[in-house]
User: Fold this.
Amino acid sequence: MSDMEQDAKLWLHGETYGFKSVPPTKDHETIIKSVLICAKADGVLAPEERNWIVGRAAALGSNGYELAKTYPADEDVIDVLNQASAVNNAGRRTVIYLAIKTCSADGELHPDEMAKIYQIAEKLGLEKEVVDSLKEICAEEAQVREKRIGLLFPDGAPY
Assistant:
């Protein structure tokens, strides 16, 4: 991996999560599968939802990039989570956060998607209140993003 790729990963993890080093990538595929299963819980895996997690995988240089592009999201989410060793205390809230972000990428967080997210949270030992707080943060982030874009480009994004 080049210095630039390493620096990009470190910056993204530091900016997003406050990490001081790049975490191991061994469970990226499990996380990608889990969030895509959630996004498909309403019966449709919207292109915007898939593209959100594909973009994240690309930005991280994740070994799950190709999987994110092609995974049909038709497995049982609990079976998928049972295959992961590192989706533990340190990563379980991140799984829920990423699931909410992915499911919201099409502009709608469908009740069936939220039901699947709550199912994952229960499997991971997270309380409903934690999920609701993460959902609220994601909504606030979306509002701040729109506000920032509007302030930077009042006539619309130039590219």
Helices lie at 3-17, 28-39, 47-60, 65-70, 77-82, 92-104, 111-124, 128-152. Residues 31 and 91 are 10 Å apart (CA to CA). The chain is about 65% helix and 0% strand.
